[in-house]
Design brief:
The protein is α/β, with parallel strands linked by helices and about 575 residues long. It is built from 18 helices and 14 strands. Among the domains are: about 100 residues, 2-Layer Sandwich (Gyrase A, domain 2); about 140 residues, Isoleucyl-tRNA Synthetase, Domain 1, CATH 1.10.730; about 160 residues, HUPs (Rossmann fold, 3-Layer(aba) Sandwich). The structure holds one RNA strand of 76 nucleotides.
RNA sequence: GUCCCAGUAGCUCAGUGGAUAGAGCGACCGCCUCCUAAGCGGUAGGCCACGGGUUCAACUCCCGUCUGGGACACCA
């Protein structure tokens, strides 16, 4: 792909055209205030956000500033718009890029780009390549992104899989928006569940029944057999040591298995954080002291509490139980403080729906630590995933003993389809994955729809090369791209940086998937209406080169979108 | 009881306060002697659950009601 792309990785890139336009609008407003054509006391917005009109008759960009300023200015909105129009048309920095400014409806300002402005979009895509779409919306922000954090006591299941896909994609999106992102997996390696896990494996190794409240999947017997083969002496140890030995060996194997499965799913972490480590080197005591300084710790009934009700929680939470044991909440508190002390500005938690009750108390921890819960901590709740095959819900997993695992899902539909489908829905709504749809190769399977568009373009470009048709940064010819489909396609390509920034700020990677689908659809329609390569023995013209170049830019943007989702962009299908 | 999420086309769902509310599926009718038909075009299908409020403008924000789903621990 992009074989003919010229290698001029030259000088400073101009700001995206949409930013140039919105800056010009702001200049126009400032001028109008200076000349008192707008009242001098008028407070102007700090930034003009442009909309992309749904209706193409309304131009490439639209703004409603005149509507919102009309009332404070005590003017008719259309008069404000008229004023803006005059100044914009006179603005030397922007007027070359604009072909028309129309005032519509109650006072919308509709801006149509000149061909040259459209050409600059294609040029930016080709020169920025893999970086096109990346921006600085979150530059300077250090983010800790914690997701999955499954207990190391069994295989990863469907719920974890949703987070694996969405969390990883969110990490990619946040990075693309300029944030410094650290992906972290919190390992619950202490507490009752670990003991039960060890006891279950040991029982299996002895050929005994697994405890009632223990772990029952087939994998427990597998682990027991593995450990017994490696360390037959574990069974002869004194009981307490024997439990510990099985627990620790099982933990190591299970964690390694989760890491293997996740790596295969293209989900990687920077830090695997051990809960146990929170209690080493007096770290917990340090955390408790910090919370005490803020004045929200108290003692009652022999237990140590955090007064989370000071910050909207419905009840206070116990950190140290009256028997001296640490409650799970102690770990939560210390873990949050650990993240902040490690230098993260924003801590994002991705939790399952069964943890939604945790949102208030986690936010309260931040507040109790003296932080701003609306900025320093962000808790995302993911709803349930169901999986359907042959019209019936899949529930049983041979391995886990309960629900279907990440690995089984991948075996059924592949990494690309699994990742894409899990990411394309907002996480706060329950979703259903239909295995039969994910295996189908039609419009109803969005991942193939998008990938197909990419492969289709690659095929066209291969043919272009065979025919000796040049395409690339020196073959943009924006003045030739006047078909409605071409304009629509360029407009969609120009949107990508804003989509990425929005997805990052809202923590909603599904927006990238939806954008990719829309872009793919627009390309397919362009392809149906606009012949890219010469027909038969037709001579090659600059229009063919211009269209091939547009194809190349489109492939770039589709590939960049899919890359943000961790999904491959195949060149052949 | 308290809290969270949802209610948009027959179905599954998008929709960052803007103009005529969208997509896929399903239904019906069409399009390949030449660039990937895993594609494209057209028709049909909507009191955006309901009632108030804020706003120049509400599917979108606020309050309330109804319906559905989920969560409540000195468990982890």
């Amino acid at each position: 792909m992009d074989t003919a792309e010229s290698n001029n990785s030259t000088a400073g890139q101009a700001a995206p055209i949409s930013e140039q336009v919105s800056a010009a609008i702001l200049r126009a407003l400032t001028l109008a205030v200076a000349t008192q054509e707008l009242p001098s006391g008028l407070t102007l917005p700090s930034q003009i956000t442009l909309e992309r009109p749904k209706n193409r008759d309304h131009g490439d960009y639209a703004t409603s500033v005149s509507l919102s300023l009309a009332k404070p200015a005590g003017m008719n909105p259309r008069a404000v718009a008229e004023l803006l129009r005059t100044y914009l048309l006179a603005d030397v920095e922007i007027k070359e890029s604009i072909s028309a400014i129309d005032i519509a409806g109650p006072g919308f300002l509709n801006i149509t780009l000149a061909r040259a402005g459209q050409g600059s979009i294609i040029s930016a895509i080709l020169s920025e390549g893999e970086k096109y779409g990346h921006g600085s919306a979150l530059a300077g922000t250090s983010i800790n992104l914690e997701f999955i954090s499954a207990n190391p006591t069994g295989p990863l299941h469907l719920g974890h899989t949703r987070w694996a896909a969405v969390g990883d994609a969110l990490g990619r999106v946040l990075s693309a928006a300029g944030a410094k992102v650290t992906r972290e997996f919190y390992i619950n390696d202490r507490g009752n569940q670990m003991e039960l896990f060890g006891a279950s494996i040991r029982a299996a190794a002895q050929g005994l029944a697994v405890p009632e409240d223990g772990y029952h999947g087939e994998y427990i017997t597998d682990l027991a057999a593995l450990i017994k083969a490696e360390h037959p002496e574990f069974l002869d140890l004194p009981e307490a040591q024997s439990f510990d030995a099985f627990r620790d060996a099982g933990y190591a194997l299970q964690l390694a298995d989760q890491q293997r499965v996740l790596a295969n799913f293209r989900t990687n972490f920077d830090i695997w954080f051990s809960e146990k480590s929170l209690y080493e080197n007096d770290f917990f005591k340090h955390c408790l002291d910090r919370l005490k300084e803020q004045g929200h710790v108290f003692e009652d009934g022999g237990a140590i509490w955090l007064r989370t009700t000071d910050f909207g929680d419905d009840k206070d939470r116990v950190m140290i139980k009256s028997d001296g044991a640490f409650a799970y909440f102690a770990s939560d508190s210390a873990y949050y403080i650990s993240k902040r002390e490690r230098g993260f500005d924003v801590c994002i938690y991705m939790l399952g729906a069964d943890h939604h009750g945790y949102v208030h108390r986690l936010k309260a921890i931040a507040a109790c630590a003296g932080d701003d819960p609306s900025y320093n901590i962000d808790v995302l709740i993911g709803q349930m995933v169901k999986i359907l095959e042959n019209g019936e819900e899949l529930k049983l997993s041979k391995r886990a003993g309960t629900i279907i695992t990440l690995e089984e899902l991948v075996e059924k539909v592949g990494v690309d389809a699994a990742r894409y489908t899990l990411i394309r829905y907002p996480v706060d709504t329950p979703m259903v994955m239909d295995v039969d749809v994910l295996r189908s190769r039609t419009n109803e399977n969005p991942v193939y729809y998008v990938q197909y568009a990419h492969a289709r373009i690659c095929a066209v470009l291969r043919n272009a090369t065979d025919l000796g048709i040049a395409y690339g940064a020196d073959q943009i010819h924006p003045e030739l791209l006047e078909n409605e489909r071409e304009r629509e396609l360029i407009g969609a390509l120009a949107e990508f940086p804003r989509v990425v920034a929005g997805a990052a700020e809202l923590r909603e990677p599904h927006r990238i998937a939806r954008y990719a689908e829309e872009l793919a659809g627009i390309y397919h329609r362009f392809y149906a209406d606009c012949r890219v390569l010469p027909l038969g023995d037709e001579p090659a013209t600059e229009l063919h080169s211009a269209r091939a170049t547009l194809c190349s830019a489109t492939a770039r943007v589709i590939a960049n979108s899919l890359a943000l989702l961790g999904v491959t962009a195949p060149e052949k299908m």
